[in-house]
Amino acid sequence: MPEMTRYEHGVPSWVDIGTPDPEAGLGFYAELFGWEGQDMGEDAGHYTIVSKAGKQVAAISPAQDSGPPRWTTYVNVDDLDAVAKKAESAGGTVLVAPMDVMTAGRMAIFQDTTGAVIAAWQPGDHIGAQLVNEAGAFIWSELATADLAKSKAFYSEVFGWEWGGADEYAEAQVAGRTVGGVMPRSPDMPPEAPDQWLVYFGAADVDADAKKATDLGATVIAGPTNIPGTGRFAALLDPQGAAFAIFQGTGDHPDA
């Protein structure tokens, strides 16, 4: 079982979603992934941490803005204030300034130079996901961008990412380990849709999970389809319209 007790600087460590109906959102993902939720209470804005096999994997909360619901990726950092300054100097926008989250840690949310939203997390009591890279847990984050070179430059400056992969699919790396993907956005994406990070969760059977998700009210927007030499995936919209993906690896896929 891929359990985590710490994350290196620059490694995505947590995902959460703000949604108009958190109770319905929890019901959907609990049925799909076998999650169990714990509401952290009114003082925490009813932030609900969800667990798989007793290990924290993600969170669901009431929406904080009127936009469409979305999954947000948090990148682990050693010094949040320094990273926020780098985000601004790199041309990004600080949407949520560095702030304490009780004793759990410190967070900030940025908009990058092409409009995608990314968050940073400096851990306190909460390290991030305790379980990753298996069915029902966070496995990968992938950015679809209007300007691949511009995005790579931003994330290199802010998080220190290095790059591997190919021209059409860049792989973000920390200490030689691949931690995420960045690719040009599809021409099929509506022009008004912003660049965005897509969160992937592991699946034991992508086809079965995609069918289960649609039975629960989700919509498949891509796949299920094979990625040669890597695995099989599907991208979906949950019943409230938030995009996410599921992935079943062949053993060649790098860890999230």
Can you tell me about this structure?
- The protein has helices at residues 22-33, 80-89, 148-159, 206-215, and strands at residues 12-19, 36-39, 48-52, 55-62, 70-76, 93-101, 105-111, 117-123, 138-145, 162-166, 169-174, 177-184, 196-202, 219-227, 231-237, 243-249.
- The chain has 256 residues and is an alpha+beta fold.
- It folds into 2 domains: 12-123, Roll (2,3-Dihydroxybiphenyl 1,2-Dioxygenase, domain 1); 138-249, Roll (2,3-Dihydroxybiphenyl 1,2-Dioxygenase, domain 1).
- It has an 8-stranded mixed sheet, with helices on one face. It has an 8-stranded mixed sheet with strand order 10-11-12-9-13-16-15-14, with helices on one face.
Question: Key features?
Answer:
256 residues, alpha+beta, 2,3-Dihydroxybiphenyl 1,2-Dioxygenase, domain 1, eight-stranded mixed beta sheet, 4 helices, disordered C terminus
List the helices and strands and how they pair.
Elements: E1 12-19, H1 22-33, E2 36-39, E3 48-52, E4 55-62, E5 70-76, H2 80-89, E6 93-101, E7 105-111, E8 117-123, E9 138-145, H3 148-159, E10 162-166, E11 169-174, E12 177-184, E13 196-202, H4 206-215, E14 219-227, E15 231-237, E16 243-249
Parallel strand pairs: 1-4, 5-8, 9-12, 13-16
Antiparallel strand pairs: 1-5, 2-3, 3-4, 6-7, 7-8, 9-13, 10-11, 11-12, 14-15, 15-16
Helix pairs in contact: 2-3
